[in-house]
Amino acid sequence: MNGYYKLVIEVLKAHGYRLIRQGKGSHEVWGNEQRNQIVSKNMPSRDMANTIMKQAKINHRF
Q1: Distance in angstroms between the alpha carbons of the first and the last residue of the chain
Q2: Are 41 and 25 in contact (CB under 8 A)?
Q3: If you average pLDDT over every residue of the chain, what do you get?
Q4: Looking at residue 10, what is its pLDDT?
Q5: Rounded distance, CA 59 to CA 20, Å?
Q6: Could you tell me which residues come within 8 angstroms of residue 47 by beta carbon, excluding any fewer than 6 positions away?
Q7: Which DSSP string corresponds to the chain?
Q8: Which among 14, 2, 27 has a CA at the least distance from the CA of 58?
Q9: What's this model's pTM, rounded to 2 decimal places?
């Protein structure tokens, strides 16, 4: 777990996401009732964290 992983997970949980399953390699699948989101445990950059927020339709920027 690097960089922004913990911060991204906190925001996802606050918006109703929960861990669905472990993905391939260092990826996890998080989801809510409407969508699933793939999250990498290796997240060294702010750009990657912001891209995940945008894909999850969450209005939050790091």
Answers
A1: 17
A2: no
A3: 93
A4: 96
A5: 22
A6: none
A7: -EETHHHHHHHHHHTT-EEEEE-STTEEEEE-SS-EEEEESEE--HHHHHHHHHHTT-----
A8: 14
A9: 0.88
